[in-house]
Specification:
alpha/beta, six-stranded mixed beta sheet, 7 helices, globular
């Protein structure tokens, strides 16, 4: 028997029609993805534990140098607390930052025998639009994400808990929320990943 070039589809691939859910959060220089800068990004592929339950995988993140031609609204920095000139920010150019977070996503897609990643986010199209804008700016050829489909935890949390604000949804799900850590891409992505996994684990798997 010859060895297969790619792994057999895992329960993850079967559960989501060949897509791997990957939680993404971005922090930006404003609300207009065509105009404002992408400043932080965090990606967390959803994984399976030994019992077949959904769990957050490892976090990949990057701080970004504002792309040439993009703008920053000072009010957005007041909300996020990002200090662009902080000596330990260690920001990367957009192409390098995307390479950094895309590589583990592609590895996770291969691990589960999936076709591609699908973005999970809280107000997911906001994150996807900024991600797609950055991909277009650097003409990235290996974007693992579906270009328009998403899983939005606003909708899921609204159905499951009657809450649409991330902090309230996380608390309604019985988890802790630290307001001092909010508005960083890593913290918000990690909380969103826990929320998504809790809701997905509570929902019965469809019949084969």
């Amino acid at each position: 028997m010859t060895e297969s070039a790619s792994p057999l589809p895992s329960p993850m691939a079967k559960r989501f029609r060949g897509y791997l859910p990957v939680v993404v959060d971005v922090e930006t220089g404003g609300f207009d993805w065509n105009r404002h800068a992408l400043l932080e990004i965090a990606c967390i592929p959803v994984d399976l534990d030994a019992e077949g339950k959904f769990v957050p995988g490892e976090t990949a993140s990057a701080h970004l140098v504002p792309a040439p031609g993009t703008e920053i609204d000072p009010k957005s920095l007041e909300v996020t607390g990002i200090q662009l000139d902080h000596p330990f920010r260690l920001a990367k150019p957009e192409k390098e930052a995307l390479d950094h977070v895309f590589a583990p996503v592609r590895a996770a897609v291969r691990k589960h025998g999936c076709q591609r990643a699908i973005l999970v986010g809280h107000n997911a199209h906001f994150d996807l639009n900024f991600l797609n804008a950055a991909v277009a700016r650097v003409q990235h050829k290996r974007n693992p994400f579906h270009p328009f489909s998403v899983f939005d935890t606003v909708t899921l949390a609204g159905i499951a808990y009657g809450q649409t604000v991330l902090a309230r949804a996380v608390q309604a799900a019985g988890m802790d929320w630290n307001a001092d850590d909010a508005h960083s891409a890593v913290y918000d992505a990690e909380q969103t990943a826990k929320l998504f996994c809790k809701i997905a684990n509570a929902w019965p798997s469809p019949a084969p």
